[in-house]
Amino acid sequence: MPFGGVKLIPGVNVERTPTLNEAGYSASQLIRWRDGLAQKYGGWENFYPFALAGVPRDLHAWQDLNQVNRLGVGTTEVLGVITGATLKDITPQTLLSDFTPDFSTTMGSPVVEIDDPNLTAPVSSFDSVFFNTPISVDGIILSGLYPIETITGATTYTIRAATNAVAGVTGGGAVPVFTTVVTSANVSVQFDDHGLSTVAPENTIVFPIPTTGNGITIDGLYNAATISDVDNFVIQSNAVATASGSFSMNGGDAQLLYYIALGPPPAGVGYGIGGYGLGGYGTGVAQSVQTGDPISPDDWTQDNWGQILLTCPKDGGIYYWDPTGGFGNASLVSSGPVFNTGMFVSTSAQILVAFGSTIAQQIGVLQDPMLVQWSDSGNFFDWTPTEENLARNFRIPIGSRIVAGLAVSNQNLIWTDLDLWVMNFVGYPNVYGFNKIGAGAGACSMHAIQQLRGGVYWMGKSNFYRYAGNGVEVMECPVWDAIFQNINMDYIQNVRAMPNTAFNEMGYFYPSLASVNGENDSYVKFNITEPSKPWDYGMMPRSAWTDQNVFGPPIGANPGGVIYQHETGNDAAGQPLVWSYTTGYFRIAEGEEYAFVDQWRPDFKFGEFGGAQGAQIMMTFNVVNFPGDVPIPYGPYLVDETTQYISTRFRGGLVSITFSGSDLGTFSRLGYVRYRFSPQGRR
What we know:
This protein is an all-beta fold.
């Protein structure tokens, strides 16, 4: 009986029918490609022994100046730093407070004292406060973010306004008051000494929280349509009032949002520490400070500025944490933009870049989803543009929001929902120049982008892209159907890039239609250095990923909060790594003839070079006579290094083979598939 054979074409292809995909692969699970051959994917082990609270969204590894390796982990509930086997919770804290306005001023001074009865302990000069309700007091308008300057009592502290007080008041201050007329969209606003005009940009005011009354809701950015006098102006509502009358913003209460930084604790000893008579003479008791509630953002971006970890919760401020600074949590960069989609450090001049950032209005601040804003060179605390620094901003004119940003070799890249823009350093005075280089090549999520070797790769909403020497290219994808016809588009923001430099792989984790909670349960990847750039896909839940780093191979986290280090062996955290791949259908005999097959000759590497050759592989033969027939399975047959051949005894016209394995501690790679057959005619 003659022998036949098939040398499989590397790469999975689901665009073709299984019969058209002759000598190819039609399905895969946890495999990779080496020299055009399919092999088992690398294993992983626990990086940290305990699951973190929340769903991990971002990982960032760095080394501090003491050569200590650290991993920043941002989840939906925690911002933590893992050092060795220890997790330090550095989650930023905030405190929301509503109270009757109680603001005091001194004539000719910009210093304003605030008395907030909701404080249960003194705030500190490390804290900041954001005005969710603008406040008018003694000729001063308070809006936006202010660092706390001095602590004057258990519930009192001072901030510094932009202008001086007129006369000096005690216990004053007022929120805006809105007056409507039935069936009219015009709303009169009483806000003493507002300072607005009808000429842009001095005509804008932001009401950060919604207030509803008389059938309308006041919320967000408004232009002053008419200036009635220094204390009153008119805005246009997006609906008509159902009644006439007046109502105050937030019911007349001030609403402040505190950003709490847990600074270095005061020493617990020393004269004058603590209240009189507390502790032994000369000892004292350390004073308590105000705490807040941990924030719980949907996503994070992280980077490092030397040994300092920088992090930005999505649509929040930028925080920093110095491992040697003694702070208990990450502190807000109070001089920076308070609302941002994300951020990254540009290496061209060590500049911190924020995207989807904050723009100041005449009264208040507002997040602009298309604004790119950056700090001065070498100083992430300086964001105010001057002739002496490099801090600037630029609004991308096309699109509805910036999705992602990344510093790459000699330039920065900005992805909108529509396009790719390049941000090149041009020096003073504009600092950066912006150009659109990828029309229609927007990114699908904030973490769906990554650089690998000399190229930048990302996933869009309907294609995969590459940016390299030839510009932006749409990548051919033979598994397109398996991804874009099986992705849960309602949660596409959860897509994560999964670069693996050591194995020249680029890929993406994504939520399939089977993922009812929207968390990533699937992956797709390809090899960038294999001649045919073969693709494969499968199931693996990972919600965050970082490529090779100071800890070694890549680190990934699953939606349950468990963090793994990958490429550490051949098993899945101590359990069998279950892998498989299935070929397309190929004809056993020549032409249209059927054939009888009685023997298969397995050809594998059953172990790693120089190691034990102990892999056990299952082979199942799926036999049909015509395309579309329900396959008849033969097997599975167990093969190992000692197996010379498999006796099968089946008849058919077409056959595909499923290879799989689930044993512990082994490696395998497919070779050349051969079989013995006898032609059986055409029926």
